[in-house]
Amino acid sequence: MRVEGLEHFNIVAADIGRTVAFYEKLLGLDAREIPVAPKGYPGRWIYDGNDQPIIHVQVHDPERHGALDEARATTGAIDHVALACTDFEDTRLRCEELGLDYRVNDVPKMNFRQIFVSDPDNVLLELNFRGG
User: Fold this and answer.
1) Which range scores top for mean pLDDT: 29-33, 64-68, 76-80, 126-130?
2) Higher pLDDT among residues 107 and 25, named by residue
3) Fewer CB within a 10 Å sphere, N or C end of the chain?
4) How many other C-beta atoms lie within 10 A of the C-beta of residue 91?
5) Residues 88, 107: contact at Cβ < 8 Å?
6) pLDDT score, position 23
7) H-type helices in 1-132, by residue range?
8) Is the CB of residue 84 less than 8 Å from the CB of residue 29?
9) Where is 56: in which H helix or E strand?
10) Three-class SS of residue 40?
11) Which residues 6+ apart lie within 8 Å of 101 measured at CB?
């Protein structure tokens, strides 16, 4: 067996509308109903530019996840999620326009730039831009 790539990551959202809007507005991703979910399921798949569902956002369910603070503690050692991106300057400007706190990391020797920003559920994103 070998791992061939990341399928998706899942976010338990305190406010699903706010979380979905964050990914659509900042990264230009497309949130859609989950095709295999029962009608009315309070979750969304968020698709990348290649039409692949890479983020699964679901509503916090106290029966399943425990208290919201407990749900936040369950990911423990996961520090951040890294996404391959394009158009560094457009993304940086979107962070500014949305009033987001973010940090830029430049690695000139590798022709590589990064933006670190947290989503509304405090998931740290590492947005990677190769080639300048």
Assistant:
1) 29-33
2) 25
3) N
4) 20
5) no
6) 96
7) 16-27, 62-65, 68-73, 88-97
8) no
9) strand 53-59
10) coil
11) 117, 118
Q: Which amino acid is at 16?
A: I
Paired tokens of 70 = 């407990």
The DSSP secondary structure of 99-122, one letter per residue, reads T--EEEEEEGGGTEEEEEEE-TT-
Reported as a single tens digit per residue, the pLDDT across 78-116 is 668 989 999 999 999 999 999 999 999 998 888 889 999
CB 48 within 8 A of CB 32: no
CATH architecture for residues 9-130: Roll (3.10)
Give CA–CA dist 12/67, Å, rounded. 11
Query: Which strand (E) or helix (H) includes residue 66?
Result: none
| Range of 21-25, 64-68, 79-83 with top mean pLDDT | 21-25
The full length of the chain comes to 132
